[in-house]
Design goal:
Elements: E1 3-6, E2 15-18, H1 20-27, H2 34-41, H3 56-66, H4 86-95, H5 97-107, H6 131-137, H7 140-145
Antiparallel strand pairs: 1-2
Length: 165
């Protein structure tokens, strides 16, 4: 099993493939636990915050032992892992388990859904016959015909016309 991620270093768009060892070295968990890990720590790029107090180190320590959210005991004393403030983490997980499961679902790459039959279906061939109706409904046609307003310099005085009598 491999995980794909994007470097946030010299070449931000350069995707790199990590093997099992690389995933463990980077995240501290096995590839199968990455969605659970992201559910706990959050993923700003995908817009979910994770659970309060669950950082990279505590998440990795707990998931290294239990692998998945469902396997983490409610009672922190059963964890027997070296994490700071385990009782608070257990309390947070207990109260926010449903959110964590939702975040894990969001972090899971789905490969079982057919999005298109052929890559050519994604090629842009210009607007379809429904575009004009859609643009009209979205006020797009009026937006395109409006003149752009000239921007006033911040230092330029504001000229106001005299009130009409």
């Amino acid at each position: 099993m491999c995980a794909w991620y994007t470097h946030r270093s010299a070449e931000p768009q350069d995707p790199s493939q990590l093997g099992r060892g690389g995933v463990f070295q980077k995240f501290g968990v096995s590839p199968a636990s990455i969605p659970d890990y992201l559910a706990l720590v959050g993923d700003a790029a995908d817009g979910y915050p994770g659970l309060k107090g669950w950082g990279a180190k505590s998440s990795a320590a707990v998931l290294t032992k239990f692998a998945h959210l469902e396997s983490i005991p409610t009672d922190w004393r059963e964890w027997r892992v070296n994490v700071t403030n385990a009782s608070a983490l257990a309390d947070t997980l207990s109260h926010e388990r449903d959110r964590a499961l939702l975040f894990r679902t969001l972090a899971t790459l789905r490969a079982d859904i057919v999005l298109f039959d052929d890559i050519e279906q994604l090629r842009w061939n210009g607007p379809t016959h429904t575009f004009t109706d859609l643009a009209t409904r979205l006020d797009g046609a009026l937006t395109e015909t409006r003149r752009p307003m000239a921007r006033r310099s911040r230092s330029a005085p504001v000229l106001r016309s005299a009130p009409r009598r």
